[in-house]
Each structure stands twice: as structure tokens, then as C-alpha cells.
User: What shape does this take?
Amino acid sequence: MLTTTRLPRFLELAHQRGILILSYYPIIYTKPLKPLHPEWLMQFLDNGRPEIENLGWFCFNSPYRDWLPEYLLEWLDNLDIDGFYFDDTNYGSHEERPFSPSCCCEYCEKLFRKETGLEIPRKVDFDSLDFRHFVNWRYEKMKDFYAPSLPAD
Assistant: This one.
């Protein structure tokens, strides 16, 4: 209850003093969403190390891509914040270094096959030309998620 009364007052006072307020948001890490949409989580590639639990890293090729802007717009509609500071803008696992290129979820699998005609890799293998193609494809998908093309007029 304190947050619902103090935060709007804080934002009001900050704006009266000309202070812009940004909210921190880890762009692909949304732990509270995990129980609601586990099917949107990244499926990490086998990198030869023990498998790690995905604590809330969401794939930007899943419906999470459409959910996120709606969620953030709700924040902007209900709080007088000026914008967001995004963090956790990686494209793979995040728990152990070196991070592994990811993901091989059903959404990535279908999209990769449709766009390349190739089967999605399930394990890290930089000696494989198909795997290196996947890494570049995944990077392009990440760039598109962060800066989507605007529709043509």
C-alpha cells in the first residue's frame, strides 16, 4: 500500500524539479512471468556443461515479443515515468560464463527452418558451418527485437 501512494508523489515531486525518471527493466528477464508462460522461455543449447535452470530468460522470438511492449505501455499509462532503462540485452544463457548462444525453443526452431531451410542446432559447435549460420541468424533476430523495422508508408 505504501508504494501505491508514495511512488506517484515521488514522480510528481521529481517532475516539479525537472528530473526525468526512468524505470529499470531487464528486457528479456521477467522472472514473475515464468509460471504464467513457461513456453516462452529460452531453451538453452547444450554447451557441454551441466544443464542450468532457466530462471526467467524469455525468447524474443516467442509471443513474449508482443507481450513486452503492451506490458511496458501499461506502466507508462499508469505511472508518470519518462521511459525505461533496459538491461540484460543478451541473446543466450546468462548464468555462467562464457554465455552460450541460445535458443532452440519451438518458436526459434520454426522460424529458423522457415528462413534458412536448416534444422536448428541443439548444441554449441563452432566447427559446424550450420551452427555459425545459426549464431548470425540469432544475432540478426536480436537486433530486430531491439530495433524493429517500421512499416513502409
